[in-house]
Amino acid sequence: MRRLLILAATLCLAACDSASRYDLLITNARIIDGTGAPTIEGTVAIRGGRIIAVGEVKGTAADTIDARGRVVAPGFIDVHTHSENICSLPVAENFLRMGVTTIVTGNCGGSRTDVAKFFQEIEETGTTLNVATLIGHNSVREKGMGGRFIRPPSPAELAAMEALVDQAMKDGAVGLSTGLIYVPGSFAKTDEIVSLARVAAAHDGIYVSHMRHETVKIFDALDEFIRIAREADIRAEVSHIKLSGPSAWGQADKVLAVLDEARASGLRITHDQYAYTASSTGLRQTIPDSALEGTRDDYKARLADPAKKAEIINKMAEIQARSGRSDYSHAVIARFSADPSLNGKTVPEAARQVRGSDSLEDQVELILDIEARGGASAVYHGMNEEDLTTFLRHPSTMIASDGGPRQLGEDVPHPRSYGNNARILARYVREQKILSLEEAIRRMTSLPADTFHLADRGRIQPGAFADLVIFDPETVADPATFASPHHYAEGFSEVIVGGGVAIRNGQLTGVRSGGPLRKSAGP
Questions:
Q1: Average pLDDT, whole number, for the chain?
Q2: What pTM did the predictor assign?
Q3: What CATH homologous superfamily does 76-277+389-455 map to?
Q4: In this structure, are strands 60-66 and 50-55 parallel, antiparallel, or unpaired?
């Protein structure tokens, strides 16, 4: 009997020791759990890549991080990125250093259509971040129709497009995205998008849209967006909500009222936003869509036809007039591979350098020539601060960068890829107090996790994945600027992905514990 009692006691001690032995303890932390609840003081215990205990925690660990004086929050979830190049830059240091642990790519209608292969490549490469993807309508349309065509798809082509979306969803895509200002998505009628959104909805996917208009015609675009959400019976997200161009400014309250009314009717609608008054996309967006149908050779042939070129130039003048601008000084060339000396210059500055004149005619000629020579990306200074803060205050607005993995020092990109989350915490929380710290964290964590049905993400609670960030809210900063964008965010000392410490004491560790994040059932 005595031997049995000793054996039982030994087994009990072993079990108790196992239960209180963790891989990592984060102690003395100010814990913001991601739900919007008040900050608490305590410890976060991690084992096997999951959070095991929060608050008063007893036990030992293989490793300990003393977070005294700092905040521990769920790792930030950036639901609007363009990261199809993640396997080329798998560390994605610009994201990590602003606290991002999970990204959603495939936005604005552009994605890999071979989702299973994309995820396989991510697994084989190894990434620091968790990577989810949408299936992009533009990519699907071009593949399903065999080109970039103005016409609607034939029944057979639409069936092929639906099959592509269906397979992508089966392979783990989280939803369907559209970029309705981009060719060939801009050629699509609403019914086509509804058909594809229904396929995504059948797999519990979300519809994410760069809407057809973000300028004076935004209310037409909102009507279409809401119609798609209703007819497809699908959760819907407005990408990078904004009002672009002086003629559209000052209507943020009206835009939100339309979306609030749709929510009140039962639709599940949210929106994301970056913390800057400039956007970034191709310089080709200043050229009429009709000029861009087909291949670049087709485009060059139109320019070679004097009558067609004159028509293109006239349409560009009409677009400028509607925007309330007299020239293209709001557009800054970010990347032009054919002539990098133009990077960082406004279109008028580039026209003076290349053509010896910054007249509107020479600016237009420069834009047309740049597209013929391979195209360029650009930063557009087109929004105002009042609209930005109005959108930011709305509780259904989450924070997303619209950025991608960046190579330090390459080109002159938008600074949002380096500083978006830090800018929210520094400028709009600490300095302007537009959001509380707890609410800002909610917008970056549980709100995107719930919206995109990313199970067990975005919260500090037992059972959740151990995706965490530790930062000092008094020193967090975004030194990246439009003139000098290649500066990492500051103030983030540790970043943990799936229990693996990717950044410690502000330094990369070499740990890559991220990977593909396939669609899961929603909450």
A1: 95
A2: 0.94
A3: Metal-dependent hydrolases (3.20.20.140)
A4: unpaired
